[in-house]
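Dear colleagues,

For the upcoming journal club I promised to circulate an example of a predicted protein-ligand complex. I picked one with beta-D-galactopyranose because it came up in last month's discussion. The inputs are reproduced below in full, followed by the predicted structure.
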Amino acid sequence: MKRTLGVCYYPEHWPEEIWAQDAARMADLGLTWVRIGEFAWKRMEPAPGQYDWGWLDRAIDVLGAAGLRVVLGTPTATPPAWVVAKHPDMLAVDADGRPRGYGSRRHYCFSHAGYLDECRRIVRAMAERYGANPHVAAWQTDNEYGCHDTIFSYSDAARGAFRQWLRARFPGQGNDGDIGALNAAWGNVFWSMDYDDFDQIGLPNLTVTEPNPAHVHAFRRFSSDQVVQFNRAQVEIIRAQSDAPIAHNYMGRITDFDHFQMGADLDIASWDSYPLGFLEDRVGATPEHQRAYARQGDPDFQAFHHDLYRAVGKDGRWWIMEQQPGPVNWAPYNPAPLPGMVRLWTWEAFAHGAEAVCYFRWRQAPFAQEQMHAGLLRPDSVAAEAFAEAETVAAELKASPDVTPVQAPVAILFDYDADAAWAVQPHGVGLSYFGLVFDWYKACRKLGLSVDILSADCRRFDGYALVLAPGMMHMPDDLKTALSAAPGQVIVGPRTGARDADFNIPTPLPPAWPGSDLTVSRVQSMRPDMPVALEPVGRIHSYLEQVEGGGTTLMQTTDGTPVAVACGDRATYMAAWGDDVAHMALIRALVPDLAVAYMPEGVRRRETGDDMFWFNYSTQAVEIDGQTLDPAGVLRLPK
Ligand code: GAL
């Protein structure tokens, strides 16, 4: 398969006279894909039931005639004012009970039945009109579910739907649920919180002090299900009219709904990669790290998501739907990428298996919210800096062999439900499941190891020398059994199996690992500025469990408290959140045979079937196998 490039385009932003020129220029640049439509509801349906498809017909024709393939987005992230006027209670409500206002985007509640009907209608109209259009070669549903903190809504519609969801989860006689079962599962005897009826159950906001964690976790699971269902409604309608693959564009570190569940309904997982924007507000990096990588982005954050979305996509199919091309408008600081970084980011995505990388956006907008966001072109249509880098990649793709996939030696499990559980009960400021998993991922990358991310539904681990499953607060027994049978080494903990499916501490106490008496007897979280030193190396910050039993101790605190302890045949329980040094040392100790390379600071590599790709995120040139790798450089060395 040939990897391809594309771009996001908004024909409705530009005079129709320039569309053909734009299209010809995109094709000349070597682009294959053009994504359009995802915010254009008002142009498609200016008033209720009055459709205006003429402009979109012509835009698709013009783009298609230039040889481009269209990704058509459904416009449900931006309901026009008339939709809101018709359904004033469709606005999502924030945790403080305030409706989220009109005037930007994503102003809807996933549980509002009237809004869902409007979405079905506009999507059906689009699918009927364009489902068989030969230029429409893929679809995108909505835009970035979860962006701007929009998964959780505390509206009346959400409350009603939550009660129904709970009735189904605790089934009873007839249509009503078993309220006694819910009370028992949640431990509502605590603080006299027992309900007499499902209709007494509210949403877990505006309580005097913290609500019951079981209640909050249930609300998070419910909210995730609502998003998956909302998306599924669109997918079913599109599929009835079109054979083209369907994608959604997910985000970086937005974990408020289960992407694996949504991914099962879609053909392609895509995500929107903004390496410099993320460095400031999502990576969780120290100010020093932010300064060192201000113009390159974090060396691991994009790669993590590439690997995650490869797992979310059906048969590993994934794309970058939006690639940062220059300074953006929305991060705390918005520097320009170092020359060469747009090319590096693009090649790194391909090395991780991306089928396509699309730049956001074709031309910088001179109006409205994103005036300060670069595109491939300036507002005056002169090429911006990224244009030439995209051109270089297009030429390189043409001239080089395809990137071939291969199974990585290391797997990391990622579980959205565990992420929700940590969010409900972090036990310390800033502690998150994502942060823990990402720390392990970084340790692997710093050792030069390629990683496959797997869903927590995975039960087969053949071919992996090492499987990491840190922090899964609820781990079903059959997953413990499958991990115990894995042929390679396994690392679990901290917090593995710390809660049952209803958010209670199970007995026997965690981790209840097959064939091991290891028991977590006490749990503490610590100030991050009071790290605890480890032997042989490294430090713990944030989180430390006290364990009893288990096998050999591989790592301990300097006062002799066991930290990494063998449990079962090939599993190691890590009873703490270590730093990179500790994590790297444990990996080295467990899988000494994995060819761990010397990795210069800021340099990363990714192994494919035929090549080893090297990427230099640092500002210093380095030598790799006798070749110079410049800052922002990419080396592709045949194996
Ligand atoms: C994305 C979004 C785009 C655009 C872009 C700007 O989150 O999907 O529509 O707003 O950010 O960086």
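Two points we might discuss: The chain has a mean pLDDT of 97. Residues 410-594 form a domain with the Rossmann fold fold (CATH 3.40.50.880).

See you all on Thursday,
B. R.
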